Structures are given as C-alpha cells and as structure tokens.
C-alpha cells in the first residue's frame, strides 16, 4: 500500500501522464517559479518581524486633544 490506498504503480502512471501532458520544460519552469515564490514569501515574512510597524522615538509621547471644528458664521 502507498499513500492513502494508492499503490506506487498508480503514482508512477499518474506521473507519466502528467509529464506527457505538460512536458518536462514546462514542469521545470513551474517548479522553479513555485520555488522563487516560496523564497520571496519567506524573505518578506522574515523582514516584517525585524521592523516595527511605526518608527517612533523611544520615550516620547504625543499629547493631543480633540477639538470641535465649527463652521464659520455667514455674514449678511
């Protein structure tokens, strides 16, 4: 028995059909594109952890108050 009830011979036959349909060049290109995408994803995930979301100096706080903005009165 192979994977989930599929024998090794069945896997070989499916692999041969896939190679005949797509060709080795296309499968090689697909594999390299997939590998590049995974490398790029891992690289971007690693860079996000190192950088803070907002660059603020340590120890400084922002003191702000909300103000109501009123429309100017019309002069007749």
Task: Give a quick rundown of the structure.
This protein has 2 helices and no strands. It has 76 residues and is mainly alpha-helical.
Straight-line distance between termini: 93 Å
* Computed Rg: 30 Å
Instruction: Determine the oligomeric state from the structure.
Output: single chain
Figure out the total of helices: 2
Helix amount: 55-70%
Unreliable stretches: none
Strand content: under 5%
Q: Which whole number gives the mean pLDDT?
A: 78
Biggest sheet features: none
**Alpha-beta content class:** mainly alpha
Shape: elongated
Instruction: Report the count of strand segments.
Output: 0
SSE succession: HH
Describe the protein in words.
With 76 residues, this protein is an all-alpha fold. The chain has a domain at 23-49. 55% of the residues lie in helices and 0% in strands. It has two helices and no strands. The protein has helices spanning 8-22, 24-50. The model has no long low-confidence stretch (mean pLDDT 78).
What are the SSEs and their pairings?
Layout: H1 8-22, H2 24-50
What would the keywords be for this entry?
55% helix; mainly alpha; 76 residues; single chain; elongated
């Amino acid at each position: 028995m192979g994977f989930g009830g599929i024998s090794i011979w069945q896997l070989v036959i499916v692999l041969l059909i896939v190679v005949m349909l797509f060709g080795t060049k296309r499968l090689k290109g697909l594999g390299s594109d997939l590998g590049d995408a995974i490398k790029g994803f891992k690289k971007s995930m690693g860079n996000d952890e190192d950088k803070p979301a907002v660059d603020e100096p340590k120890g400084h706080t922002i003191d702000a108050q909300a103000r109501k903005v009123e429309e100017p009165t019309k002069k007749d």
